[in-house]
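hiii so um. not sure if this is the right channel but i have a protein structure encoded as tokens and i wanna go backwards to a sequence. like what aa goes where. can anyone help
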């Protein structure tokens, strides 16, 4: 079987935070009942102290829900509010991608051009294209994975110094032979933009995105400013500890933007409404190969497909996704999370808003699908066990992941880190079709 993108979901805290489990899962009868359900969910998190951050939902271009919990600054007990701004990390890559496609539309760049004229010291520069930088197919190593990154990440580092650091990393693989996430790609894209426009990356963002969209709370990050309604970030051991700030000179293009969830939603809606780049450019941004699009990632949650991006920087975490069929934008930004629970919160919020009530399977139905299934293609195996009326996927004889029943013998491993996995069984349970992203494979019961 082709290698699958399997990332374990972290055990959810959603209903261990002094919240009645059944209350949050009931399908709301009132169209606005989701608001009370999400309020209840976030109030439980605030009470438990397991999450600090803000959420915004927007439907058909209209802001319909916002909420913030926790503190911008724990030491002074400065409370967060819905206008608190966070470093959005790699969500910034979508903004950088938009600038690249605007440059292409303005005939200043092409996707096919190689980068040797900009970065002659980068290995394989003669073969690396702008498209490969956008889609993480360049082979240029990720500078944030370099062991020395934490020796300098809090210090100002000039573009020349950053380029030297990236060039010294060499290459991880031949360009376009596979995809592998690298912040280096988007740092270089920001440098290309500055060269072709002879203007700063920050000025280009202001001129081509923020001003046209009237985004007044979105800007290039500097040192965190409480007086400007920004939030510090924290990590939890036995207590919350404020984290050192990565210097934003290092993250230009890859993760250097500050915003609020409401304004991230405005940006995402404008992007998908064709207000920033052409439909052709947006289609290219959404084209996924080996997991990565050109500035957008594809997500499938509760059988609903969306595009967006996730970001992590210091203790900040952001997830922003637009669901075109539902005309729904959701952004959650956090400055402090225990157990990296932001993505589990996102999935639950989506369920509550869309009234996705679970389908119940009987214990007799589930029993048919337990056992070991083998792929004739490469002898890979999948193991399923039963927990009453829940089918459970066993991973490496250690991790047990309850699957969500979707009806018609189909069970889904829902995850936000990569695309969800769908397991559809034959009626007699002798065969299984596994689907994830563009992969589809058949398994036979042992």
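sure thing!! here u go:
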């Amino acid at each position: 079987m082709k290698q699958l993108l399997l990332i374990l979901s972290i055990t959810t805290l959603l209903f261990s935070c002094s919240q009645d489990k059944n209350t949050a899962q009931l399908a709301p009868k009132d169209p606005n009942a989701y608001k009370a359900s999400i309020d209840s969910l976030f109030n439980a998190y605030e009470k438990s102290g397991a999450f600090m951050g803000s959420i915004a939902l927007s439907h058909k271009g209209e802001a319909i829900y916002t909420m913030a919990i926790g503190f911008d600054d724990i030491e002074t007990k400065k409370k967060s509010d819905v206008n608190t701004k966070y470093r959005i990390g790699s969500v910034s890559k979508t903004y950088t991608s938009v600038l690249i496609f605007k440059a292409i539309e303005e005939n200043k760049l092409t996707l096919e051009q190689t980068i040797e004229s900009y970065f002659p010291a980068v290995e394989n520069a003669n073969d690396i294209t702008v498209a490969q930088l956008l889609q993480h197919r360049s082979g240029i190593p990720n500078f944030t994975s370099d062991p020395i990154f934490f020796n300098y990440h809090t210090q100002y580092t000039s573009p020349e110094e950053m380029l030297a650091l990236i060039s010294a990393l060499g290459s991880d693989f031949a360009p376009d032979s596979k995809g592998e996430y690298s912040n280096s790609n988007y740092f270089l894209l920001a440098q290309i933009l500055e060269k072709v426009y002879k203007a700063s990356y920050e000025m280009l963002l202001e001129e081509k995105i923020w001003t046209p969209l009237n985004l007044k709370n979105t800007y290039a990050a500097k040192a965190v400013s409480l007086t400007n309604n920004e939030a510090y970030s924290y990590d939890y051991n036995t207590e919350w500890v404020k984290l050192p700030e990565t210097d934003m000179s290092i993250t230009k293009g890859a993760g250097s933007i500050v915003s609020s969830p409401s304004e991230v939603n405005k940006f995402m809606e404008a992007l998908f409404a064709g207000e920033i780049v052409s439909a052709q450019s947006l289609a290219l941004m959404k084209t996924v190969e080996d997991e990565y699009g050109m500035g957008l990632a594809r997500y499938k949650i509760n059988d609903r497909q969306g595009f967006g991006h996730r970001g992590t920087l210091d203790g900040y975490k952001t997830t922003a996704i637009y669901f075109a069929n539902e005309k729904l934008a959701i952004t959650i930004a956090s400055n402090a999370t225990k157990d990296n629970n932001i993505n589990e919160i996102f999935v639950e919020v989506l369920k509550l808003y869309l009234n996705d009530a679970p389908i119940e399977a009987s214990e007799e139905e589930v029993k048919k699908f337990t056992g070991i299934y083998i792929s004739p293609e490469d002898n890979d195996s999948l193991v399923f066990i039963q927990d009453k009326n829940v089918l459970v996927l066993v991973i490496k004889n250690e991790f047990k992941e309850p699957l969500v029943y979707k009806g018609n013998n189909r069970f889904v491993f829902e995850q936000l880190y990569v695309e969800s996995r769908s397991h559809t069984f034959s009626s007699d349970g002798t065969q299984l079709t596994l689907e994830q992203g563009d992969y589809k494979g058949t398994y036979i019961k042992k």
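oh and The two ends are 16 Å apart (CA to CA).
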